[in-house]
Amino acid sequence: MSLKVAFQGERGAFSEQAGYAFFGDKMSAVPLPTFEDVFKYVKNGRVDFGIIPIENSLYGSIHQNYDLLRKYNVFIVGEVKLRIKHYLLANYGVKLSDVRKIYSHPQALAQCEDFLKKLRNVEIIPVYDTAGSAKMIKEKKILDGAAIAGKQAGIYYGLKILKAGIENHRKNFTRFLILSRKKIIAKENPKTSIIFVTKNIPGALYTALGVFARRRINLLKIESRPIIGQPWNYMFYLDFEGSVADKVCSDALRELNELANYYKFLGTYEKGREVG
Amino acid sequence: MSLKVAFQGERGAFSEQAGYAFFGDKMSAVPLPTFEDVFKYVKNGRVDFGIIPIENSLYGSIHQNYDLLRKYNVFIVGEVKLRIKHYLLANYGVKLSDVRKIYSHPQALAQCEDFLKKLRNVEIIPVYDTAGSAKMIKEKKILDGAAIAGKQAGIYYGLKILKAGIENHRKNFTRFLILSRKKIIAKENPKTSIIFVTKNIPGALYTALGVFARRRINLLKIESRPIIGQPWNYMFYLDFEGSVADKVCSDALRELNELANYYKFLGTYEKGREVG
């Protein structure tokens, strides 16, 4: 049985790699042009699951996906923390000394700056996508150039690894979320994500967090996003340890719901392992 | 006497417009290529002040500038909340019915989608910058096209307003911060910005916010950013009402400093008015 899993980007993208780390060989990759398409496909049942990046350990949150989690009624049912390891990829037969041009997404190029600085007589060319740069050197049969992308892109486009692990920072992880139209409450090592808006009174956020602190529930992340049409007011996205199926957490959420002007449950899912 | 004020972007940018709203005619505009250049120029005393966007009321925080506030030792000494009003600008002699091409930054084009949808036989062309699109139609003497940019761009490049206020959302504000190498503590209507990192123990954020809640200090914004090299740990940027010169606030900050692993004072400045 295969599971259709939607992600944004070209085949070979880091999102696809994170998907394989989570689903294994059961995954059938469904690449889509935009993040919003991923949410739509999950919502409409055109795929079994979606996978989206939510946060990078160097660059922070991917806000568009926070906003889409509020907009679409889908549930978070899993998490993957993928080590972002960059590879210099080329067509077979190309040696490192042949390389005169290196193509990749500007962020990937920046993440490999230390490696790139050591090269002589090489032109750095920004393109729209990491996996897209691998696709391009393959399709155009480029023999004097290389691409910087993830391992999955090398596998998918049949490219040779000229050099592995060329990123500056080893502690570069992207956290991905697995989305489903059905609520699935994880039992193992659970964490829970919610959205809430406090009443507009002094101390409201402190009071809201007290709901968790008094029960010794450990907060993992808080993220604020603007409320459209109400400048300088914010909604909060909260991740904490525990499951809605546990009484202590469900009590906390009931109390928060009473305090809040807006509340949305996003999911209870197993905390992601670090992979890749 | 003129004040040199650095900002990122082309002449006529929204940052420049916000600068004039704050400094008036005393301002002498210093356009620079990047946000980091603005911080460097302020730090090195090559300009009197810098102005940077920190947050938009529809799209949220500009994270790069949050990170630069931590990296550079400069102080926040003022704030402006600029209403983002988009204008359709063209060379003199061009009528709305002549326009076949409209140029602007993709975000500005998205913000004017409702207006653009009503036009017939017009090609929408994304360019790198709003003020840059105004500059281009002026320099290239384009007579069948128009640019979408702010009022300041129209003034600077001597363009005619074909249509004013073409943005979808009227409650679209960008909040700008004024930077100085010297600490200047505002007396009128003060707010204060700090950065802190809590100890890595459950309830640490709640305890930190309690420092303010117990003193009835009103929090205005909390923003979390990743700590480089420590995946899934965060630093917090906090804005609150009050001045470091007031005993109640300085007591709170002293207590927070004792609780925290890292603490940085960014500034006490007058709350910005909404302008433009």
CATH topology value of the largest domain in chain A: D-Maltodextrin-Binding Protein, domain 2
Write down the overall mean pLDDT of chain A: 96
Radius of gyration of chain A: 21 Å
> What string gives the helices and strands of chain A in order?
EHEHEEHEEEHHEHEHEEEHEEHEE
Dominant shape of chain A: elongated
Q: How far apart are the first and last residues' alpha carbons of chain A, in Å?
A: 25 Å
Largest interface: A-B, 38 and 38 residues
- How many DSSP E strands of chain A? 16
Count of individual domains of chain A: 3
Question: Could you name the CATH class of the largest domain in chain A?
Answer: Alpha Beta
CATH architecture descriptor text of the largest domain in chain A: 3-Layer(aba) Sandwich
- What is the tally of helical segments of chain A? 9
Main β-sheet of chain A, in a few words? 7 strands, mixed
In the predicted model, the low-confidence regions of chain A spanning at least 5 consecutive residues are: none
The CATH superfamily of the largest domain in chain A bears the name Periplasmic binding protein-like II
Instruction: State the assembly state of the protein chains.
Output: homodimer
Strand portion of chain A, in percent? Answer: 35-45%
Helical proportion of chain A? 25-40%
Given helix and strand content, the structural type of chain A is alpha/beta
Keywords (chains A, B): Amino-acid biosynthesis, Aromatic amino acid biosynthesis, Lyase, Phenylalanine biosynthesis
InterPro entries (chains A, B): ACT-like_dom_sf, ACT_dom, Preph_deHydtase, Preph_deHydtase_CS
EC number (chains A, B): 4.2.1.51, 5.4.99.5
GO molecular function (chains A, B): chorismate mutase activity; prephenate dehydratase activity
